[in-house]
Each structure stands twice: as C-alpha cells, then as structure tokens.
Specification:
glycoprotein; 16-stranded mixed sheet; 13% helix; CBD; binds 2-acetamido-2-deoxy-beta-D-glucopyranose; polysaccharide degradation
C-alpha cells in the first residue's frame, strides 16, 4: 500500500533540518564519522514496558533516536557534505574519504524536529512553527534504542504489542505510523560510521528506499535497501490499517496484505464518533499468533483489538479483525511470492526495530489509506499544502507502549490505563499449560497448543484458523 514516499520524505526534510541545526551548531558534540562515542549523544528518553503473564509489566527507560538522514553532515568548516540530491561527490567519493572529510552532527534539539517525550509519552508533530508563524515541515522518523546504544530488538513472534494513541488532530492525508522494520541491530555500525544505531543509521523498509547511506555504509551504487516490514498502525483520525510486508533480500511485497476496516466494509467502525472514536485516545492491541502457541512456531495469524474508555472492542468484523496466511495470500500473488506471514514471523522471532513516523504525501495525498474504497476522505483533501494551511498543529501522541506474552499487556476489564509497573489486575496468574489464558489461542487449523481455557473462559471460534479463550 504505502508507496515510495519514504525516500522522498528523507530528501524533502534534509534542507529544513540542515537549516534548523545550523541555528544551533554547538548544542551537541559533532563527531567525525569515524569517531562517534554513542554514550555522549543525548536523546529523548521514553519509558516502555515488557510484560509476562506470570510477572506482569515492568517499566524500563529507553530512548528514541531520529533517523540518520535528519542529522547534518558537514566539514569542519561547516560546508554541507550532502546536497539536495545526495552527497557531495567531491567530499564523499567513497566511504573512507567521506569519513575523513565529514562530521555527523548530533540532532540534539529534537524540539526543532517536532519531537518531545515525557515519561511513557511520545509526541510527534508534522510541522514546527517558526518565528513568523509559518509551518515548516518536520515529519520526524524515530527508532527505539536499547541501553547499549544499539536498537532495541522487539521479538514479537507469539507475543503481542500494545500502546495508546491520540490521533484526534490528524486530518485526511496524514499518516501517523508505528511499525517494525528488520534493520540491523547496530544500524550497520562500522569503522567509517562508529555512531551507527545511536545516530539513527541503517533504515530499510519494504519500499526498498534508495538513500545516501545503506545499512550504515555510503551508498555509492544507488541501490535500494529492502527489509521485512510490519506496519502495526498507519492511521489518521479518519482511517487506519495494519499491514505485513514480507520481503526477500532484493524485493518486497510492497503493497502488503493489510487490513483496513473501512475497506473491509465496516465504514462506521473507525473515525470521530465511531465505534473506535478517534476524537479521544484509544488503545491498540496487536497479537502475533503462531501455529503452536509458542514463540518459535510459524506465524499463523495477526489479530487486532482496541480498548477505549475501559471497554474492549474486539473487532469491526464479527469474525474478528484477523490477517491469516490465507487472507494475506488472497489479496494478490505478491505476499505468497515472499513467503507470506511465515516470512514476517521469522523476522519477528529474530527481532525487529520499533519505528515511529508522522508524514504526508505530496504525490498521492495518502489516498491508499483514507480515500476511495479505503476511507471517507476525498481524493484531494490530503494535499500537504492544504494540511499545512488548515491543520499546522497536526500531531500524534503515542503512550504506554508495552509488549510481551499474549494477554499480558492489557487487563480483562479492558482498562487501557494499566500502570507500567503493575500486574494486569485480573489476569489469571501464571497458570501453566495445558490451559490457555484469557485471550489466548485455543484451536484452529494448524494449532497444536493447549485447547482448554482457564476458568471461566470458553474457547470461541473467530475463524477456521483462530479460536480464542473468551
Ligand atoms: C562540494 O564540496 C566542495 C568542497 O567543499 C565545494 O567546493 C562544492 O561547492 C560542493 N558542491 C556542492 C554541489 O555543494
Ligand atoms: C531548541 O530549539 C527551540 C526552538 O528554536 C528553542 O526554543 C529551544 O531553546 C532549543 N532547545 C535547546 C535545548 O537548545
Ligand atoms: C549490515 O551491517 C552489519 C554491520 O556491518 C552487518 O553485520 C550486516 O550483515 C549488514 N546487513 C545487511 C543486510 O547488509
């Protein structure tokens, strides 16, 4: 679905970022590309939680880093090493020369890039407003870093990811995205790029973007960088979808096999005043169910649930909001060509990088997300020029991000406000197999895990592939 916007976006923001950073040249240590102690690099902290059925949720303070391409690359004399169309070929004819000529500047002022954090809350603005009151495109993209200066690798096979989101200010044409990409854990850190992940390098996705650097290394042959991508949420206040994009080394299922409730015919489910009411915050739960209920099996389905005002909203579709191998392959031939859900499952098992973005799309106005069959927006109202004029304050707020065992990240009562350090209130404690806990899978084609549900839940059919303890 998402087309080739991301590389476009990076190029588009470069000019404004250089400008922004040039205002504060000394507010962050600059480093030779070859000399970058990650520990000296200041980034916004963000609290996230890991959860288990037995132990509840444990909060940990991590940090987010803005993408490598949003940093300024310059010589010691403050000449830019990048141009609007790529790198300066005189300064950067090859990796080693580039590293000796250029420094990478820390993007210390995240406010200038539209980003702020507080505790477990992450806020991202599409635009920043300058002294003259004009909207300047910020469109930040961030990654979650671990404690070691490498990316935090989320291993979500047989697990679930839950967060709360406020999309109330995002109009047609905006896309607030929370997704997973199979980037290198170190961001491709090497002798010529010792910053690596802690400077946001190594981005890849299922659109195979062509960037100035590829897996941390200067990209001298103009090649794209493809990797498995799992879009957990791509949304504004009017439409939303979640989409697996399996890949090979050289290409991907670029359209993906996503699920968008509006496109599936449930037109009143999601939106302002909808069943999921986007005028206020809500919680999004995404479960990666394996064929055998373990964290090492084959990814068989992905299920989606929402919580709002303490109430669990199971799905738009009475059969459940679920992507199965079968439904994924039914969209077109592309997913199957790249191994469908099992390919995504392998990446989820190995670990993927949590990515946050807010962007809009001057080429297609995000019609694939929210217009025509996909949502209630007109084909033209997603024009970024209109958004900047009418909604310059548009922003997304992500909070209370947590992941772990299926059923461990939210409570039975459906409360979306489980505090990060407390145990979900009414989850049956560490009940061992053979009974399955509330919300867990209990039957379906290919299922070999526990079929009995812990009291008082009963095994309920969602589809031939997925039964759940409800
Ligand atoms: C590239 O860098 C050289 C050396 O600093 C400079 O003279 C030249 O103007 C730069 N070219 C561009 C297109 O920025
Ligand atoms: C970041 O930039 C903003 C806007 O230019 C400014 O108000 C703020 O003081 C800067 N913060 C730091 C830490 O330099
Ligand atoms: C990315 O770079 C890292 C570090 O050099 C390397 O281990 C990894 O194999 C590279 N990945 C790809 C896909 O090139």
């Amino acid at each position: 679905m998402a087309t080739s916007f991301r590389s476009v976006l990076v190029t588009a923001v470069l000019a404004s970022c250089q400008f922004a950073n040039a205002q504060n040249p000394d507010d962050q240590a600059d480093r030779k590309l070859t000399l970058t102690p990650p520990s000296r690099h200041k980034r916004p902290s963000l609290t996230v939680s890991k959860c288990t059925t037995a132990g509840g949720c444990v909060a940990k303070e991590k940090s987010v880093v803005i993408d490598w391409n949003y940093h300024w690359f310059h010589t010691e004399d403050w000449l830019s090493c990048t141009t609007n169309s790529g790198v300066n070929a005189t300064l950067c004819p090859d990796q080693a020369t580039c590293a000796s000529n250029c420094l990478v500047q820390g993007a210390s002022n995240y406010t200038n890039n539209g980003v702020s954090t507080s505790g477990d809350i992450l806020t991202m603005y599409q635009y920043t407003i300058n002294e003259d009151g004009e909207a300047q495109n910020a469109s930040p993209r961030l990654y979650l870093l671990g404690d070691d200066g490498d990316y935090e690798m989320l291993q979500l096979l047989g697990q679930e990811l839950t967060f709360t989101v406020d999309l109330s200010t995002l109009p047609c044409g905006e896309n607030a995205a929370l997704y997973l990409g199979e980037m290198d854990k170190t961001g491709g850190r090497n002798e010529y790029n010792t910053g690596g992940a802690s400077y946001g390098s190594g981005y890849c996705d299922a659109q195979c973007p062509v960037q100035n650097w590829k897996n941390g290394t200067l990209n001298t042959d103009g090649s794209g960088y493809c990797c498995n991508e799992m879009d957990i949420l791509e949304a504004n206040s009017r439409a939303n979808s979640f989409t697996p994009h399996p890949c090979s080394d050289t290409d991907c299922d670029r359209g993906g096999c996503g699920l968008n409730p509006y496109a599936a015919g449930y037109k009143d489910f999601y939106g302002p005043g909808g069943t999921v009411d986007t005028s206020t915050p809500f919680t999004v739960i995404t479960q990666f169910n394996t064929n055998d209920g373990t964290t090492t099996g084959t990814l068989a389905s992905i299920t989606r649930k929402y919580i709002q005002n303490g109430k669990l909203i199971a799905s738009a579709d009475p059969k459940g909001d679920i992507i199965t191998i079968e439904s994924c392959n039914a969209i077109d031939g592309s997913a199957a060509q790249f191994g469908s859900l099992p390919t995504i499952g392998k990446a989820l098992g190995q670990g993927m990088v949590l990515t946050f973005a807010i962007w809009n799309d001057a080429g297609q106005f995000m019609n694939w997300l929210d217009a025509g069959d996909n949502g209630p927006c007109s084909a033209t109202e997603g024009n970024p020029a209109l958004i900047a004029q009418n909604n310059p304050g548009t922003h997304v707020v992500f909070s209370n991000i947590r992941w772990g065992d299926i059923g461990s990240t939210f409570s039975n009562a459906g409360s979306g406000t489980t505090t990060t350090t407390s145990k979900p209130t009414s989850t049956t404690t560490s009940s061992p197999a053979p009974t399955q806990s509330h919300w867990g899978q209990c039957d379906g084609i290919g299922w070999s895990g526990p079929k009995a549900c812990a009291s008082p839940y009963t095994c309920t059919k969602s589809s031939d592939y997925y039964y759940q303890c409800l």
